[in-house]
Task: structure prediction
Amino acid sequence: MTIDAKKLNYRTLNEKLRCVDEECTITSCMGQRFIASGMSNKSITIEGIPGNALGSYFNGGTITVHGNAQDAVGDTMNDGTIIIHGNIGDAAGYAMRGGKIYVKGNAGYRAGIHMKAYKEKVPLMIIGGRAGSFLGEYQSGGVIVVLDLKRKEKKCVGFFPCTGMHGGKMFLRSRCEDVVFPSQVVKRNATDEDKMELRGYLKEYCDLFALDLDEILSSEFTVVTPDSKNPYRQMYVAN
Amino acid sequence: MKKEGEIRIPSGCAIAAVISKEKKNISGDLIIKSMVPMHDRSNGLGGGFAGYGIYPEYKDFYAMHLFFNNRDSRKACEVFIKEYFEIVKSEIIPTRKLPSITDEPVIWRYFLHPMRSMMLSLQLDEKSFVARAVMKINTELDGAYVFSSGKNMGTFKAVGYPEDVGRFYRLEEYEGYSWTAHGRYPTNTPGWWGGAHPFSLLDYSVVHNGEISSYDANRRFIEMYGYKCTLQTDTEVITYILDYLIRVKGLTLKEAANVIAAPFWSTIKNEKDRRESEVHAYLRKIFPSLLITGPFSIVLGFEGGIMALNDRLKLRSMVVGEKLDRVYIASEEVAIKAMDKSVEDIWSPAGGQPVIVCVEEGQK
Result:
């Protein structure tokens, strides 16, 4: 079924969504916030521009956006998959605790800030383009992958990645020679074992966006994990 | 009730801007449209707009917009104005009655020519003379407040949602080459007409989303140079800082951006361009009290252009899009699409990276 979002405010739009069980397409979306917030088992496609906090507290199902998304996509999401066929704004996957966010394009600042994990709940975020500064800030669990598929002269991440990171894992498709990491994390080149793990994460992503998985995996990857010997270091004091 | 500036209550706001690089006319109607999808970013306690190139017939005179409490405060203020300026024209700013906009003050505009004899006796250049007169009215005259004072530009603001404020001031009847807009969600002050954005002084106007944490440090510094912060809102101090750096100290826009959103020392140390690194370090050392910390995204309007800037940590969102002669800036992508659906390749500048757009004959 189709919901024409023109002139609907976010509350009315979400009330309509809550009543739908079948697959649903939202057309003429114009910045409505909180779409599908806290909902479970929904299959939603969005045409137009969803507003901030798309799929916040999302609890299962699929959200597909044919275009760009704004800030705080998947804030505290618990389960399900959010697929963005464009770029994503700042603070994507904020405090995400489960589920997957697949972005075809670039991510803004603070992607994966305070992602966490618990037992079988391991959130995953894959960014096809570049990521802004403070990627994985305070990351305490889960997996973040940055592919930088268009690879131009710019770095694949901005400044201060992994600030305050104390859990989880990050894969960056680059040697990261020009990236400065804080001292509480360890970076190393991906081993065959890491790549096996990465293959598992990338399979669905590559199918979705019609990418060659083997070709991507043939590149060099940097793996970043917290250094458990020195977990707490701050940057905000001596600025 | 206590007025704004007398109370402090312990934001989300919305900003937008459009400029024609070829200095073509844009109706005020367009910028109102940008604020509609961002309605929820404001809470109805303030909205405002600034338009540049809107008074071509009076472009050589300072256009002063004033709020008065009543007829008496206007009469008293006019006596003051006549000591400093020749009044070329004075009129009530046309407005439209709307149920959503209430308690309006008396709103007038004056086109003014500074009194040469007065300027000579005070030994001030023209702009400093006008700035001083504005400060005097705003701090010494009860019931009068200047909220716009540049040439061939004007600020329009009120308590209400921005789209209502735009209709209240009949902005569709104005045309300018650039516009900025603001929807307010005041977090520290109760929200009064004068406290809405844009804040302006001479031809500088600032719209701001965020809440800076360096307000008092900045205020203490800037008040040493003749500025008076009367409203306790952080945007006022940003406006005066930019006026001081650009007009008084003669910094370029980019240098001013490097002062208020200075790169971290660690970033400066690692900069590959030695010259750039030295300039950044120099500016931080000369103006340490003008570093603005805490979240902000701002658009500075000035004669001939606009500058958009995020705080260095980028704690607020801002996106930029371009189509033909026009450049669009907004807190959300959807606001740009509301102005022109066909804009593609919308991008977000990095924290501390100024986006400067000037009309072709532009300045700096």
Summary: Chain B touches chain A at residues 37-38, 40, 264-267, 270, 313-314, 317, 319, 332-335, 337-338, 346, 348, 350-351 (CB under 8 Å). The longest strand of chain B covers residues 106-114. Residues 7-11 of chain B have pLDDT under 50 and may be disordered.
